[in-house]
Write a structure and sequence with these properties.
single chain, Growth Hormone, Chain: A, elongated, about 0% strand, mainly alpha
C-alpha cells in the first residue's frame, strides 16, 4: 500500500475494511446456507468466484483512487468471506458420511498451502515486475476457471444424486410402516 503512495493511516483503514468485509461475508455465507436449503451449496460458487474475480479487478483498476479502493476492499473481502463460510457446507453436500471430516481437513490444508504460497508468489511477481497487477490478473483468471470447475462439479453431483435416488427407492419397493411388520 505504501508503495502505491497510500499513507499509513489510509492503508490501515483499507486493511481494516477488508477484514470487516471478510467477516460480513462469512456471516452472509452462513445465513445464505441456513435460509437457502433448496439447492446445494456448490451452486453458490457460481456467484462467489466471479465476485472474487470482480474484487481482484476493482483492486487493479481503482488502486490509484484512494476512496474508491474502500469499495474494492469491500467487494474483495465479501467474496473471500462467503467462500470461507460456504466451503465446508459445500463439502458436506458433496461428500457423505465418514469421508466428510477428511474432505474438510484436505480443504483446509489446501487453503493453507494457497495462503502460504500466494505471499511468496505475489512478492516475487512484485519484485520482478514492480507491480502486483500480474498477481491479481492471475487471481482473476483462476477465479473464473474455478467457476467453470464448480459448474462441472454441480452437474456431476446432480447426476450422482439422480442415480442414487433411483438405486435407493425403485418403484417396486415401498416403505413399510414399522407397525405393519409384526
Amino acid at each position: 500500500m505504501i508503495s502505491l503512495g497510500y499513507t499509513q493511516k489510509l492503508g490501515t483503514v483499507l486493511l481494516s475494511v477488508l477484514g470487516l468485509a471478510n467477516l460480513v461475508g462469512r456471516i452472509v455465507g452462513s445465513v445464505l446456507k441456513l435460509r437457502c436449503r433448496a439447492f446445494p451449496a456448490v451452486y453458490n460458487m457460481f456467484y462467489v468466484c466471479p465476485l472474487i474475480a470482480l474484487g481482484h479487478t476493482l483492486i487493479i483498476t481503482l488502486q490509484t483512487q484512494d476512496h474508491l479502493m474502500i469499495a474494492a476492499c469491500i467487494v474483495h473481502g465479501l467474496g473471500f468471506g462467503i467462500l470461507n463460510a460456504m466451503a465446508p457446507v459445500m463439502m458436506y453436500d458433496l461428500v457423505e458420511g465418514d469421508k466428510f471430516m477428511h474432505a474438510v481437513g484436505l480443504l483446509n490444508f489446501s487453503f493453507g498451502i494457497g495462503n502460504l504460497l500466494s505471499n511468496f508468489i505475489g512478492g516475487r511477481i512484485r519484485d520482478v515486475s514492480g507491480s502486483y497487477d500480474l498477481a491479481y490478473e492471475i487471481g482473476i483468471a483462476a477465479s473464473l476457471l474455478v467457476t467453470i470447475d464448480f459448474v462441472v462439479i454441480a452437474r456431476i453431483t446432480k447426476k450422482r444424486q439422480k442415480e442414487r435416488k433411483s438405486l435407493l427407492l425403485p418403484d417396486d419397493l415401498k416403505i413399510i410402516p414399522y407397525k405393519t411388520i409384526n
